[in-house]
Each structure stands twice: as structure tokens, then as C-alpha cells.
Amino acid sequence: MWLLAIISVIAIAAGVWRAVDGRSAKKEALEASTASAARTFSIPSQEWFTVQPRQMPLGIPITGSLSAMDSALVKARIPGELRDLQLREGDRVTRGQVIARVDATETEARFRQAKLQADAAQAQVTIAQRQYDNNRALVAKGFISDTALTSSLSSLQAAQANHAAARAAQDAARKNLDDTVLRSPIDGQIASRMAQNGERVNVEAPIVEVVNLSALELEAQIPANDSAQVQIGQAASLQLRASNGQLPQNLQAKVVRINPSASSSNRAVPVYLQVLPAEGVTLRPGMYVEGFIQTGSLETLAVPLSAVHTDQPLPYVQTVRDGTVQHTTVSLGARSVGQDVTWVAVEGLQPEQIVLTGSAGRIPAGTRVELQPQSTPAQPSNAS
């Protein structure tokens, strides 16, 4: 009995000690929190700014790969053995330049045959014409009947028709002979070579692809909801992403064509932009670019997107009033494009209101702060 009583007393004492210790810990935490709130933090001049109305450029983001506006795939027009193809990728060609030939032995023989048949038909026309002229003279003198004249006229007309058919066959044979010579339809460079000398190629077999690098375009897929904002002639700003640590290269473009219908696969509207030449920048088909089409501008109160916090149900910015940090809920609107800092239009702020940048970090509401003075109005950086 005495043992059970002693154990009970010890248990009760331990419980009382834990309760007292817990209250002490809570009291210490509360005192620490109060001390933290009472402490004044210094905010560097580059980590705060005053909200001002600003002109925000608006646009539609675009990405894609460059392609040549003028390109041609040279194909075989007649079957045969490929010969005299000396050009390779990167070689320059001019319009009308001979690229290759298809063995013309059989084609030349057919052309000669067609020419001889046309010559023979011409001889038959000459004979029929002479016969008709003679019969017409004899009919005039009454030596033969009109029936003979009619028969000779029919023979003449048949000979003329045969000659016309033979001439058409000769023209077709000449066309086939000309088609054995493959020429470049445009000025440009050889982009790809798809056949080799000695190969037997069929009709429509691709031989080489020629591209003109003097004019490049970008096909951008615009969401159907945004396509109404795009018009022919609008300017666009593009960036060619560089490698090896080099800076991106800026390009200018303009909208030249808009597809009248949306794609059935992604419900986007293809928009075509002509990329303008840029000094010191070498562009080639297949290069990846990104940018935006300029659709207008908006004057509004705006803050850097990085200054907006989203760790609460509603977005907010950290403002300073009477030396105290406040979490001010804002409504977000349009975002700017084409600037080092992405700005977002906001509602819920007043002009000249002080806002902390993103680099200031998250500061609890109610914290006392002291703003370091600025020599010039602060311009938030991209890291803000």
C-alpha cells in the first residue's frame, strides 16, 4: 500500500511539473515574438519603391523555329539514272543553274523518233495539198467530177490532222528531253542532298532542297482567344537564344500573314512573321526564337511580378505604412512584355504607396521597419 501511494505522489508531481514547464515555454515564445515585433528592421534603399502609374507594353508571347520564306525541293521529272550532281550542302546556286541531269539516252531517241514522225506527216500534208490543188484545177476544166475534189480535200484534212498530232508528240518529247536537265528555280543554297550519282530515280524523287536565306519567317501558334488582337503589320520583338554564355541576340519582325482558320489539333491560329535583317546576326532555318507580338500599351499602377507573394489564399504585396509592414491584398491584371523586369497591373494600391521588392523577402505583418533613403527613385531589378 505504501508503495502504491508513493508512486501516485510521484506521478502527480511529474504532471504538475510538465504543466508548469509548458506554460513557461509558451510565455518565453510569446515574449520572443513580442520582442521580434518590437524590433525595428532596416530596409536597404534598393529593396523598396513607391508605386507610380506607368506605361506598360502589352503583347502576346510567341515561340518557334525560323524557316525560309522561299525554298524549293528539286525533284526528278522523268525516270532514269542520275548524273552530274556535283553540288553539296552549303553550296550556293543561282536561279536557272544546272543542278544535275538524268540520263537522256532513251529520251533523246524518243525525241528523234517523234521528230521523224512529224517530218513524215509534213510530207504527207505536202502530197495531199498538191493532189488537192491539181484536182481543183481539173474540176475547173471539167475533166473530173466534184466527188474527186471532195475526196482529195478529205485526204488533205486528214494529213493535216496527222501532222498536228505528230507535232504535239514531238513537243512532248522535247519537253521530256528538257526535263532531263534539273535546274534551280531560285537563288539560294543547297540545304540537303537526297540522291547520289548513279542512282536510278523515279518521277517526283527528291534530289536537293534549295533555300533562300535572305528572307526568313517564323510561324507562331497563337491561342484562338488572343488571335483577334493580332493584325497584319504589327511589330514583334524576338530573341535568339545564344549558347556558350553569350548574350541573347535581339531581332525585329512583323506580322505578314494570318491563317484564316485555327488548327484542328491545338485550336491555335498560325501567324506568320517576317524576320527583319539584323546587323552582325547570322540567321539560319531551324534556329529557335522567342518573343512577343506588340499589341498595345496600358497606363496603370503596376508592381514587379516578383514583389507579389502567393503564399496566402489571395495574392498580396508587402507595403509600409507608418513604419510598419502590412500585407495588402491586390488583384492582378495584365503583365508587361519585352522588359528586363516583368510588371503586372494591380488593383488595391494607391499612387506613392511604399512597396517592398521581392528581394526583401517575406516579413511578418506588423514588423517595424526603417527605410533607408534613396538618392533617386528606385527601379526594381529583375531579381527584385
The residue ranges in which pLDDT falls below 50 over 5 or more consecutive positions are: 1-6
Structural class label: alpha+beta
Distance between the termini: 72 Å
Q: How large is the share of residues in beta strands?
A: 35-45%
The CATH architecture category of the domain at 39-56 and 298-371 equals: Beta Barrel
Shape type:
elongated
Q: Helical segment tally?
A: 3
Helix and strand pattern? HEEEEEEHHEEEEEEEEEEEEEE
Please, what is the average pLDDT?
Answer: 86
CATH topology of the domain at 39-56 and 298-371: conserved putative lor/sdh protein from methanococcus maripaludis s2 fold
Largest sheet: 6 strands, antiparallel, barrel
Query: Numbering strands along the chain, what is their spatial order in the largest sheet?
Result: 3-10-13-12-11-14
How much helicity do the residues have?
Answer: 25-40%
Estimated radius of gyration? 43 Å
CATH class call of the domain at 39-56 and 298-371:
Mainly Beta
Q: List how many beta strands DSSP finds.
A: 20
Give a quick rundown of the structure.
The protein has 384 residues and is α+β, with helices and mostly antiparallel strands.
Textual characterization of the structure:
This protein is of the alpha+beta class. Among the domains are: 92 residues, conserved putative lor/sdh protein from methanococcus maripaludis s2 fold (Beta Barrel); 91 residues, Elongation Factor Tu (Ef-tu), domain 3, CATH 2.40.30; 76 residues, Helix Hairpins (Orthogonal Bundle), CATH 1.10.287. Helices cover 28% and strands 36% of the residues. The chain has 3 helices and 20 strands. A 6-stranded antiparallel barrel has the order 3-10-13-12-11-14. Helix 2 packs antiparallel against helix 3. It is elongated, with a radius of gyration of 43 Å. The protein starts with a helix and ends in a 13-residue tail after the last strand.
